[in-house]
Structure formats: C-alpha cells, structure tokens
Amino acid sequence: MSQDMSEENLPERRSSESHEVAAHDDPFADPGLPPHEVRRTDIDERAAKRAERQVALLFTVSMLATVAFIASYVAFDIDTIVFIWPFGHVSLLNFALGITLGVALFCIGAGAVHWARTLMSDVEVADERHPIEASEEVRSKVIADFKQGAAESGFGRRKLLRNTLIGSMALVPLSGVVLLRDLGPLPEKKLEHTGWDQATPAAPLKLVSMNTEQPLKAEDITVGSLVFAMPETLSMDSENFQEAIAKDAVMLVRIAPEDIKDRPSRDMGFEGVLAFSKICTHVGCPISLYEQQTHHVLCPCHQSTFDLADGARVIFGPAGHPLPQLAIKTDAQGNLIATGDFNAPVGPSYWERA
C-alpha cells in the first residue's frame, strides 16, 4: 500500500523538483527582499544619542568651515604664494578657499548620510506599480508614508540635528555670495575716464598715429580717409598697452564743414577733422569700416551703424549710444592735440550710465 502511494505522489514530486530547478536557473528571478537586520541604534538609545552627536558635530564643522571660508577671503591676499606639500607653490587664498569650502560641503553630505544610515528608518518597503494618475487611496498612503518617514527621521524630535542642519545649510550659500566679489574690482570712476583725461587746455596731448607713433597734423587727414590715433603718452611697447588702447583708440575723419549736420560736433573738430572713439557702444568691438559718401561707420561685429556727420548718432543696429567725441585743435606746429577727455564714457553701457 505504501509503495502504491509513493508511486502515486511521484509525478507531483518530480514536478516540484523541476520547478525549483527552473527557478534556480532563471537569472531574472525575483530574489525578494533580504531579511531586515536590526541596527544597534534601533535598540540602544545611548548608541542613538552618540550617532546624533556625531551628525551634529559634522554639521557644526560645516558651519565653522563656512565661516573660515569667509574669513580667509577677507584675510589673505591673492598674491600671497606659499609652499604646501605636495602641491608645491600655490596661492594661499585659493588654497584656503578650496579647503574650507570642500570641508563645509563634505560635512553636510557626510552628516546627512550618517543620519540616514544610523537614525532614519531603514525598513525596505516594496510597492506594486500604479497608474501615472494616483488614486485617492494612493495619495492618502503617500501622505501617510511621508508623515511616518518624517516622524521616524527624528527631524522634529531631535532638535539638535534639525538646528545644526538648518544652520549649516543656511551658511553654505554665503560662500557663493562672497565669491561674487571675485568678479573683479569695483570700477569706481575708471569707466568714465580714459587716457585722454590727462589732457588739459594748459597741457594738451598730441594725437599720434597708431601705425607710426608719430604726431598727426590736420593736413595728414584727407577727405575720405580713416586714420587711427592714440594719445602721445601711450606706447605700443608699454606693458598695459592692450588695456589702455581698449579705451583710448580714436578714429579721425575729415568731412567738409558744410556737410556736418551737428553743430556741437563740428565745433569739437578742426576744419572738418573730427575725432571719435573707435570703440562701439554696443559690446565694445573696434570700428573700422567707413563709407565716405554717406559718412557712416559700421561695426563689423553686429552691424551697428553711426553717422559721423551727425554727431556719430546710431542710425542702425543694437548700439544704444552715439560714439563719444574728442575735442581737438592744433598747436603752433600744426599737430592735432586734445585738450580733454571724450564727451561721454567710452564703450558699452553699464549700471551707472543711463
């Protein structure tokens, strides 16, 4: 009898064994969730308090590092070079900023990770996929899960963690605000003046050719020509030539006095010779294209067009201001001279300029 029963159950046993083998051979079989392991901080309140103090310490170090970042920016000069192994000779300011900001960000991240691994709930929960539009039951469950997670995280109950986290997160953005100061020194009045500002009626500056660095005479400027000039105090060999010429460059044209429409502009010239800034008032490109018949100059970058016979006003393009003009006359030797700076700031608009 027992032998018959064994034989009857044999197909069922073979089916069960074959199913187990098939499941074992399937590389995509769902292994399920591993059994939950209880952490020490879950059962030992002293361990939980110790972990809380460790996280708070990391957040506090982050706050101190942010304060050190700001203090370093104020205390160290950018030109101070020190030897630091193994980096070699580096800027003390850059090194201090990098170290302090790195520590501030690292401690926030490390504190958050340590908080999550030791104090927040680590029970894994599996949930079935649901439609994109959640049902009312799902929404209620999400809200309940969020409230449960917030309660289990201890954010409301563990005030030391919450306050130090808020403090570190509030201070870190100050690093970015301080870095805005590194956009450059404040311009003060530098944008309003050029190298021609040194010229006065008592001590005028000669206009010299940018090609020969020789003084220019009124007779050198012929109708239809475009001549580029700079102040006699500037030399192409000078160390700051590129910086200075970006504001001091002048273009000279000669227009028949009766063709000059703007009287103040004509009075700033000499016998039809007019001196305008070579720097476009849109984004600061050098202007070099001149049309003799219309007295228009064109900026090659964005096609802003200026009428030199009408005070260099803008007649086309994105430029917002006329080209500044330089008042000129001649000295006893017939050299063209300037007695002051341009009549307006050179180049593109900026905050202080309307």
Summarize the structure.
The chain has helices at 2-25, 40-43, 45-75, 92-118, 136-153, 159-171, 173-179, 241-248, 263-267; strands at 81-84, 88-91, 205-209, 227-231, 250-254, 273-277, 289-291, 296-298, 305-307, 313-316, 325-326, 328-330, 336-338. The protein is an alpha+beta fold and 354 residues long. It has two domains: 37-126 and 134-183, no CATH class; 192-338, Rieske Iron-sulfur Protein (3-layer Sandwich), CATH 2.102.10.10.
What does this 3D model show about the protein?
This protein has 354 residues and is α+β, with helices and mostly antiparallel strands. The protein has 2 domains: 140 residues, no CATH class; 147 residues, Rieske Iron-sulfur Protein, CATH 2.102.10. It has 9 helices and 13 strands. It has a 7-stranded antiparallel sheet. A hairpin with a 5-residue loop joins strand 12 and strand 13. The longest helix has 31 residues. The protein is elongated, with a radius of gyration of 39 Å. The protein starts with a helix and ends in a 16-residue tail after the last strand. The N terminus is likely disordered. This is Cytochrome bc1 complex Rieske iron-sulfur subunit. InterPro entries: QcrA_N (IPR045603), Rieske_2Fe-2S (IPR017941), Rieske_2Fe-2S_sf (IPR036922), Rieske_Fe-S_prot (IPR014349). It is a multi-pass membrane protein.
